[in-house]
Structure formats: C-alpha cells, structure tokens
Amino acid sequence: MNPCKICAAETKNSCSNCKQIYYCCAEHQKQDWKSHKTNCRPFKIVINDVLGRHLITTRNIKPFEVLIKEAPLLRGPSQATPPVCCGCLNAIEPSDYINCERCGWLLCGSECKLKSEHKYECELTVQRGRKVNVQEFTNPHPMYQCITTVRGLMLRDKDSELWQKFITLESLENARRDSMQWKVDYETVCKFILKFFNTTSFTEDEIMRVIGILQINGHEVPISDPPHVAIYYNASFLEHSCIPNLAKSFNKDGHLIIWAPGAIKKGDHLSICYSDSVWGTGDRQHHLMQTKMFKCECARCVDVTEYGTKYNALRCEKSDCDGFILPKSLKDWHKEWICDICQSQVDKGYVNNILERAGSDLNAMEKTKENCIKYVEHYKKWLPGQHYYMCEVKIHLIQQIGKEPKELITISDDELQKKLNYARELIQLYEILAPCK
Fold first, then answer.
1. Which of 25, 192, 397, 418 makes the best surface tag, with the fewest CB within 10 Å?
2. Are 384 and 358 in contact (CB under 8 A)?
3. Pick from 57, 17, 434: which is nearest to 247 by CA?
C-alpha cells in the first residue's frame, strides 16, 4: 500500500501509465493530471549537439514494459507504391474499386471515403478543377508518389496543432540537398505536385521539407498490403542503433507500440533500429546513408567481427586455411580484406564479385527446399554458415522442411535434424545480433 498523492490515504492503485504515483480514486488522479502528466512518461526528450533531440529514461524500465503507444500523426501511401485505396491504403484490384465522386481517387468502397486522411488530397484535387483518372496499375505509380506529401502539406492550413508538431521534426534538408535522392524527389514529387494540382499554395522549399520529414521520420507500417508509411511524434526522437534496446510493433489500428525486450536503466538512451538488424554491416550502412543521411557508429558497426559472429566474413581463399576474411580496418571497409589466421589479403573486388554473385543468385532463386539446399552446398566454398546470405537461405529452408503438417509424418530423420540444427543455430546467432527483432 502507498499514500494517495492528493489525500495521503493508503491505496494500491497507481497511475496506469508510469506506475510511480498512487491515487485512491479516479477523481484524485484527474485532479492531479495537469501537474503529473509531464512527469508521467518513462522517458524525456533531451537535446545535444551530436544527437539533436533524443529520448532517455526517467526511471528503470522492466522487461516487456511498453514505453510508447501512439496513433500516427500522419499516414499515407509509400512513395513507391501501386495504386492503393486512399482510405484503408490496401492495394486496389483493377476490376474491383470505386472512384471518389468528388475527386476521382480510387477507393475500396464507400466506407473508405469517410476516412479522414483522404480529405486532404481530395480537397486539393477539387481545387484543381479536374478529377483524377487512374488508368494504369503499375508499381510504382507516379501519381501516388505525391499523396502522403500532400497530406503533410495540407496540415498547415487544416490542422495547425498537428502541423506545429509535424513541421518541427527533423528533415535534414542541408544534408539531403546535394544527394541523388533530393534530385529524384524534386523532379518526381515536388514539381509534380505544383504542376498536377496547378497550385501556388505551397513553395518548393515547403514541399521539399515535408518530403524530408517523411523520409527521415517515416515508419513502414505492415498492417496494410502493401505497407504504408506513417509519422509518430514521440517515436521520431528515438535514436538508431543496430543493437537497439527497444522493439516496435503495430496494432490493427496502425498505432505504434514501442516496448522493451529487456531491462533498461534510468538515464539510458532509448533506441530502435532504423534499418534491418539481420542485414550485414555493409548493407545496413548503405541503407542508412541513403535513407537517413548518416553513418552508423554503434557498437556493432565499429566491430568488424559483429560481436564475434563474423556475420559478414568470407572463407579464406587458400584451400589449406580455415580462416575467415574480414575488412582489414573499419576505415577501409571498402578496401583490403584480411584472413584472421594466415593474414593473406584480398582486395574488395574479389569480395564484391563473390557477394554480388551470391546475392544475385539468392534474389533470382525460387525459394524451394531443393533450391535452398543446392544454394547452401554451392556457396559453402566461399561463405561460412553464419554469413548473412547463408542465414537467409537457412530461414527459408527451415520454413520449407515439413511445411505441411502431413509432411512431418513422412519427413526423414536427417531432414528433421537439419531443420532443428539450423533453427538452433539461427536462434543463437540472432540472440546476439538482433535481440530486439
């Protein structure tokens, strides 16, 4: 039992969010909410010159505790998408859709036109004076590249409270300005919006800033098919780490849930992975530089062995050596690689040739059980079993062996053992590399 903050009466009822303050009744909690709400969350926003705004814990966090649960500030189709319903954001079948009677944009059904997000592109299209006419169902569809940006822009005049939150998020305009992505966005989204909607309501700078906010802060939300993009205000301040201390998921309404797989100490920085933690370091670094405009220097990225797993390593090219080839230096990741036993060196061209061939074969391959087994057998000459390409194939193989319940009756002991061995191997590996996945 603990004392009620208002009247000091003994009670066991705590604030349902922070679990730190106690109230004997709902009326006393309501009475204290104005002063308590700023301290209620288990984190606070802080700022420094290196990280900008970021989150640190205000108390110890227990395993599996939810730290953030929030509705999207803005959501819409991904920039590269086929035609989708402007209400529910699911893919449109060419033979099964309706057009919004006001603007012509595609909808699944009449109930989807009531979705609040659609009103923004609908209104701007009505102002244009001519309905949208979607004839092609290509992917990506050029007209759909603009919708989420338009929704962000329309907040300025239609919802000032959300706009003030949205426009303060990081856009990294200066870093993006000279990038190839900036040029692509300027041509395919910015100029398209100004011409297609025949509008002077927004400047090029405003449009490019909104595009940047979406690119830097957007989350891929997998509750629609295809996934859509959404902005979540508090989650936008979470740092990146390739070994994060938080995991994320989404409920059926598209609300983001950020939770802690393990304990976190008071004062610790809070992080999620902006990339895919099962990718190799080179792929993660490339993705982060292309999409988030920074080079990651987390503990995993500065360790060429990736915590001793040698997840990126190749086998030594010498037939009489059991060593692994890894980058000679983090600063020279794209230059010489060296064997950890015989110290022989190879240039990055040799490494690239193997990885490009292995990656190309993997992408082109139909992921059947037979093909996966052949892939592992063929590439084990160059790739150790824990290499990220081999791990991807093993995941497919685990899923294919005994896929149908009736197969488990007839499956051979050797195949079943292979499935179990690969599963144990991958669990052990990813408990090190992706504990929050």
1. 25
2. no
3. 434
Beta strand 314-315 with 324-327 is antiparallel
Q: Give the pLDDT confidence score for residue 247 in this predicted structure.
A: 95
* Strand ranges inside 83-179, DSSP E: 98-99, 106-107
Instruction: Report residue 134 as tokens.
Output: 């979607």
In whole angstroms, how far apart are CA 348 and each of 297, 326, 356?
21, 10, 12
pLDDT at position 114: 67
Domain boundaries, the chain: 2-65, 74-231, 314-434
DSSP for 254-304, please give it: --EEEE-SS-B-TT-B-EE-SS-TTS-HHHHHHHHHHHT-----STTTT-T
Q: How far apart are CA 71 and CA 361, in angstroms?
A: 41
Per-residue model confidence (pLDDT) at position 272: 96
Tokens, residue 428: 């052990």
Length of the chain counted residue by residue: 437
Distance separating alpha carbons of residues 422 and 394, to the nearest angstrom: 7
The list of the chain residues with pLDDT below 50 reads none
Token pair, residue 238, equals 């979470």
- pTM for the structure as a whole: 0.84
Specify the DSSP element, H or E, that contains 381: none
- Please check whether residue 199 is in contact with residue 124, taking contact to mean a CB–CB distance below 8 angstroms: yes
How far is residue 139's CA from residue 347's CA, in Å, rounded to a whole number?
38
Q: What would the two tokens of residue 293 be?
A: 């405009």
Q: How far apart are CA 395 and CA 388, in angstroms?
A: 11
- Dihedrals φ, ψ of 350, to 5°? -65, -45
**How many whole angstroms separate alpha carbon 150 and alpha carbon 158?**
12
CA atoms within 13 A on the CB side of 167: 14
| Residue 187 exposure: Cα atoms within 13 Å on the Cβ side | 5
Cα-based angle 233, 285, 49 (whole degrees, multiple of 5): 50
Core vs surface per residue 287-298: b (16+ CB within 10 A) or e: ebeeebbeebeb
Residue 331: the pLDDT is 66
- Give the DSSP H/E element, type plus range, for residue 181: helix 180-185
What's the mean per-residue pLDDT of the chain? 91
pLDDT at residue number 376: 96
